[in-house]
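Risk register update: the risk of archive-format incompatibility is retired. Evidence:
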Amino acid sequence: MSENIQNDDFVARLKSYFDTMVVYKDLNKNSFISSFKLPSFMRDYILKRFQDDDGVVDVDEAVEFIRTFLPHKNDWNALQNRMVNQGETIKILAKLGIDISIAKGETSFRLPDYGLGSKDTVIPRRLMESIGEELVKSEERWGVIELCYIAPEDGDGKGKIQLMDFKDFCPYDVDLDEYKDARRQFTLDEWIDVILGGVDYNALGYSDKAQKLAVIQRLLPFVEKRVNLLELAPPGTGKTYLFGNISRYGWLVTGKVSRAKLIYDVAKKQDGIVAMRDFVALDEIREADYLEEPELQAAFQGFLENGKYRATDNHEVNIDASIIFLGNIESSLMDEYKNMMVELPKPFRQSQFLDRIHGFIKGWELPRMDDDLKAKGWALNSEYFSSIMHELREDPTYRAIVDELVVMPEKADTRDSEAIRRLSTAYLKLLFPHVRQPRDISKREFEMYCLRPAMNMRSIIRTQMGIVDEGLRGSDLPQCRVRDFGADSDA
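Archived output:
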């Protein structure tokens, strides 16, 4: 294992090319902030705000800021008292969702972290006219919110908490072109370390590049639309943390989830989280009884295939989210040539469902999380990096490059070829974001770090399909190759 000290030249370049987007992370030393249970993007914002040039945090000021603007849910009664009985307007950083009532012609909001529901709130029409477009972009958004209490107008009325203002929490300017250009200043090995630091991992804690790349597989759905993955792993490898804490654009489902919450709420006429998020990770699928429901199975098969679901006769849900299925299985089953699906819900034991999953992650190849793997050193701010990954999803140029580079054999299975292209595109975005045309990357590097890993991930799905369906046993994955554009320099 490498000595756990960052290279001075690497740190200097990181600070030079990313400037204010770099923060000193020490998840062991700064454990004081963990007690507030903040998502990592909020944690990094606070650390950056209250640390000096050497990365030393003013703990007292940081704690005071958190207590003032990020109050604990146990403080909600005190906040309500200030609004209702003392007539104060309060300003806090919080996660907010909105509900639009067609019947009443009113818009209300909810603060899920404080248990405040939409029946006790209101958003004035004038405010919706000015900021409503921002609020409806996703199911819930972090922002700086101002609240006050509106007393009932008559004896039959009902008091409400009113939203007075909302400013989206986006404290960093994201320039995708600058990010792409900065990649040129780092070797591939260094860039892998940059990525890991951006998602709270200590790159120096891993034993080799293979382990690092195994972790990076999990980020493919962060940068590419509709990349569907299945990861089976032992407990303790950090998958729940990564999907649940790094990006505000994703959603981790733990426990039971309804069709209404996930896909479409017929009563509210409202799209679910798969239509609002970049990715949705379904955790602990071995115990996910809801996946046995026939209606939900049919919905999954539809939108995993083409990103659409006909919710009602006159409404179709359009879905760009990547779907990630996460599960823990017995160690004796952690073998791609055995039936790994035997303990999973029925859909995973059907080839037609598995076929719609693009790739498999062998989670048992990732080390268990320990203190050595937690971020320690200068790294990209997680909020900034998650925003970069969000922006990369909208860039179509990488797929065009992959389509030019990858040569498929004749009569290749459409789902196989699409899965390979989609996964290769995600790898290209993560590892070689500076590539603007096919000649910008060497044939060797594209094959080694994009195409071959994509084929391996899809191959496991193909193998499992043959195990659960004897009629597909022995069917081969298309043997793709890379078109040679004459590029021979390493990125």
